[in-house]
Batch of 2 targets.
Target 1
Amino acid sequence: MSQFDLIKDIAKFGLENDQDRLLSVLNELIEYSKKTKKINFALQLQSILKEGLRQNTSSLTKVGSDSYYNRLEDKEFNDLILEKLTSDYTLNNLVANENVKEELALFIKEHKSSDILRKFDLPISNKILLHGPSGCGKTLASYAIAGELKKMMIVVNLGAIVSSKLGETSKNLAKIFRKATAENCIVFIDEFDSLGKVRDYSQDHGEMKRVVNTMLQLFDYLPQDSILIAATNQKDMLDDALLRRFDVNLKLDLPNERQIGELINLTLKNGHFNLPDKSTIKSITKEALGLSYFSIQKTLITAIKRSIFEDVENQVLRVPVVDVKVWKSLITTEKIALHIP
Ligand SMILES: Nc1ncnc2c1ncn2[C@@H]1O[C@H](COP(=O)(O)OP(=O)(O)O)[C@@H](O)[C@H]1O
Ligand SMILES: [Mg+2]
């Protein structure tokens, strides 16, 4: 079935209020999008679907039945997480220095080859901290780990957990870890530093200690085949004892010239779009130093789109060539906006 057929079915079942068939076609479209490498679209659809299911409480369940309790528990749990997803990303989607890529590859290997390590009674690294400036691939790296290991990943909404009632934070954390280990999911805690905010939310100084202690315990009792990924751009905010518990500690930094070059190639999809010539690439790479991968990619994609529009308007038929002047001015604007000299 083509994606247009799927979209027609979605319209039809949606209008007919036929929820079961609507869900099944949506899932088909998600699978189809993954297969055709429209990963972002697939992830977005997945989260729309999940949000829809979360809000849909219209159908009746018998009070006291198993499904009633499951639903209560699921609803409570869903409020604590942002997403539950699978990913098709791999390490090839990530640009980083050799050391970081090697460490990530080894971390993944430990889980792919856990049998061997177990045979020799060796521990498996399963707690990894990703830190560094925003837009340099912490979230992307976590998707790549999930994608390489083909595991579900739970993205934890730390903000929601921490701002809840006094004493609840520890309970919430424990709940998430229990569920994740039961379902063999990766736990991804983004903005890990917001644990430090417990201090601001609560008058009780014991609360912060309690939360950190809970976290330490959860870390210590995390089963070997479970994985915890934490990300932060404020590593300094983290408690030392907590920091020490991570098996792997990686900094994802701003790109240097070579890495900017790699990012450009990746974004130009190895020839789907072109840059005019080598010397312009060199000069614009220098221009882009200081910006994050995210900013560089964003400005390049905008420039690509504008160049395509230009070609269409001028009725030029060719592999789109990025208008470097446009890209340069976008980079300058971005730098000004972010106060980068
Ligand atoms: N190291 C990188 N390699 C390739 N693309 C990157 C990298 N870092 C960021 N990007 C691009 O920017 C987007 C946002 O990055 P993200 O992983 O969310 O950054 P962070 O979590 O560190 O703030 C990514 O989805 C990707 O498109
Ligand atoms: Mg992120």
Target 2
Amino acid sequence: MNGEARKTRNAPKCPRSARYKARTETGYGLRTCFEARIRRDTKPDLVARFGGIPLLRKKDAVLIDRVPVRPPHPRKELIHRLLTRRCELCSDPGKVVIHQVRKLANLGQTGPGQPAWAAKMAQMRRKTLVVCFTDRPRERPPRPASCLLGASIVTGTS
Ligand SMILES: [Zn+2]
């Protein structure tokens, strides 16, 4: 016997495959599988099974493609928020401005002392807020002289 034949059809069966070979009951009769079983006295046996599946085609199967579920959160991009032309604090339509803070940490502690605009920004986790002129925050945090962000974006119907 040459080496190739020994590797394929005339090779003796692996003793491990004979050890784990088992038969399992399926809806279509007994099927051969490989099974590792740990017997336990008080609990059901622990069984790991490979195979034992009836490989039959279901001719009457109906394929149902699932429609991907869109994320429940709408887009929060600034341009879309700005184009609504509504104040995010009072929902009034009209002229709006963008209020922006440098960091969310600059909004201060949450609580009764926090302004409504800061609480809204903290709730939205956004550094920008679209507000009307009446709700626009008057106080500005001190900014370093090197800060170049000074202009507000103003839009609205005119
Ligand atoms: Zn407003």
